[in-house]
Model the fold of this input.
Amino acid sequence: MISGRLQLQRSKPKVLVENKISFAGPESELSIYDTFEQASRVALQSDQLLFCGMVTGKKVMHSVDDYEAAFYPHESFIMAPNQAVEIDFPEAKIHQPTTCLAIEISTERVQQIADKLNLSAPIDKQYGHWQYQPSLMHTHHNQQTQALLDRIVAIYTENEQDRSYLIDLAISELIVRLMRHQTRDFLLHHSHNDPQFNGLNAALHYIKQHLSEPLDINALCRQACMSRSKFFQQFKQHLGCTPMVYQQQSRLTQAATLIEQGQQITQVCYSLGYHSASHFSRLFKQFYGICPVDYKLRHLAS
Done:
């Protein structure tokens, strides 16, 4: 979703590699990058947190520690302040540019949101507290994050009366989603390494071990040693969703991994507990923005 005004500006690129159009906001800046020809090892670095979302095409990101990953639409790439990467553009063409949006967010703004989360929705002290982990992240984002990015572009590029206020709200939501994602990854790693650490770890481990089975809330409550109401409250506070939604997301994440590894889509579907290939395909596309067949073709070509 890009405004007509922005489309007009993009029609006259000044440079062919990483042509940049920027829009300033309070404690943040949105940039649209278009690349119109193939290129390799193009450097990118920012002194602020940099949230990148692919719009069209493909990039290959290289970090200084030899990490390499292909970067496609419906995916996010988050760089810590002062972290350097180099980018390849293997598919860029003059009439089919590779397009990416990048949002620079001040470290002060990130800390403000972390402080508010620690006051309004603290996590269990055994896990620490809400904070941004300054590390490289590459992840698929869901429909809600994609809709948020579309909304952010619209707010930045259009002259709304309450533009600054709306940008501030949208950036706050983006930061919350980032920290929730990092915290979820931490909890999953923690529960894998120490399932008996506490009740939540035990429940997360149980879900993982029974991923293809219908969710048994009573069994989860027994694993967690919690009442039903307390379990739902603790789960949503730490994971940001209900156990049912979490299981569905975990199934789809595992499905994507298995498809990338070359397994047949039908085999993946039924092995994860789905009883209808069409239902699985619909859920997969809602989550990843691309159907399983196209997802498989994309990764075969990578």
Remarks:
- Residues 1-6 have pLDDT under 50 and may be disordered.
- The CA atoms of residues 94 and 238 lie 46 Å apart.
- The first helix runs from residue 4 to 10.
- DSSP finds eleven helices and ten strands in the chain.
